[in-house]
Fold:
Amino acid sequence: MAEQEYPGDAAVTPLVIVGTGLAGYTVAREWRKLVPDQALTIISVDDGSFYSKPMLSNALTARKSPQQLATFSAAQMAEQLQATILTQARVTALHPERAELTLLRDDGVECRLGYGQLVLALGADAVSLPLAGDGAGGVYAVNDLQDYRRLRAALEQARSVLVLGAGFVGCEFANDLRLAGYEVSVADPAPYALSRFVPESLGRQLVAALQDIGIGWYAGWAAREVLRQEGKLLVTLEHAAGARQQLPVDLVLSATGLRPRVALAQAAGLHVNRGIVTDAWLRTSDARVYALGDCAEVAGVVQPFVMPLMHCARALAKNLAGTPAPVAYPTMPIVLKTPSYPVIVVPPDPGLAGSWQVTEMEGGVKALSMDADGKLLGFALGGSALTEKAALLKALASA
Amino acid sequence: MKKWQCLICGYVYDEAQGAPEEGIAPGTRWEDIPDDWLCPDCGVGKIDFEMIEMAG
Structure:
C-alpha cells in the first residue's frame, strides 16, 4: 500500500465524504460534475475500491469473484474524481460545532480533519436476529464487499447453506447459491416470500418457483439457536405453533434486514431515528452535515435501494454546489433479480394503505394496490406478469 | 447489434430488442439513446453502462 500522505492536522477540506459505497462515490461523482475545482476528501474504512452492491447477490451465477466485483481501485477512483481518498481510515468522532472530525489513520495515528461540508454515507449493518448457541457467531450477513469476501471464502468449504430471511436479499442469494450448485434452504417466520411487499398468491408463486429448482423452504419457521457440531452448524428452527426441528448445514447466511449506522451521528448530537434524519435536501440537523444512502432516513423514510439513492445523490450534489434542490422521487420500482421468478414491486407511498386486487395467470401474478376509491397506489408483478410493467407505470403516473 | 449492461444493477440493453416499454424502438443503437436516459431498473446514467459480449 503506497504511503498515504495525510492533510495536516485540522486542515480544512471544502467537502469531506465519509464512505465509499455506492452512496459516497455517486454523490462524489455528481458533485465533481458541478464543481470541477474544489478539493474533495473521501474517507474509506476499507480499501476504497468501487463495487456495486446489487451485483453481490447474483455474482455466483455471473461467475464473478469478489476481486472482479471491485471494478475500480481507490487510486483509480481518486484519479477519476480528482479527490484524496484515505483508505483503511476510521472516523471515530464528529465535532459539528467545530466542523471537524477525528480520524484513526491506517498507521494508527489519530488526526483531526476540518470540513466546509460533510457527507455521511456510512451504510448499514446487516443485522442477524438474536440467536443462541456457540455457533451464532459463525452466522454470515452481507451488506458490503468486505462481508461478501468473507462469505465467498467460507462457501469454498461448504455444500449446504441455510438462508435466514425471505426478503429481497434472502431470495436473491438463495436463488444465486442454488443455481451455482449449493444445497439451499430458506427459513422465515412469514408464511411466504417478500411478505412485506407482495400479496400471498404472488409470494407463494415465488416460493414455488424457488422450490422447483430444489430450494428447501421453511415458511413459518424462525431460527432460534445455532450450535457447532463436528464442523457443521446445527440450527434449531421453531415454528409459530411451537414445534421445533434441527437442521444440520455447513453455512448459515442471515438476510434479515439492515440497521442504518447511526452511532457516529448520534454521539455527535445529530438528530437520529431509525436512520440519520435528514430533510428532503439531505441535510441533517446540523447545517453543514448531510447524509444519504443506507444510513440515512430522508424525509422520514429509510430506502436502502439503488434508485432512491441515485436521486438523492443528484439532489445532494446540487445542494453541496450551492444550487439547492429537494429530492423528488419518480415512481421507483424495486426489482427482485431472481432469474427463477423475477418480481417488480412499486410499493404505495409510505402512509398510504392500499388493498390488493390480485389476478393470477399462467406462471405469473399481477397485483394492484388500490385505495378505497379504486385509485391505483402501487403494484406488484411476478413471473410472466412482468410484461405489464410499462402499462402500469403509465397508469400510476396518471393515477 | 450490441448489448450493453448496467454495471450497477445488471440490467441489459439489447440494441436488437430496444426497450419498447421505455419508448425505445427495437434496433435503436446505444449512441442514439439520449445522454440523459436512465437505467430503468436502478436509475444510473448511461456512463455506468459497458458494452459486453453476451453469450448466445
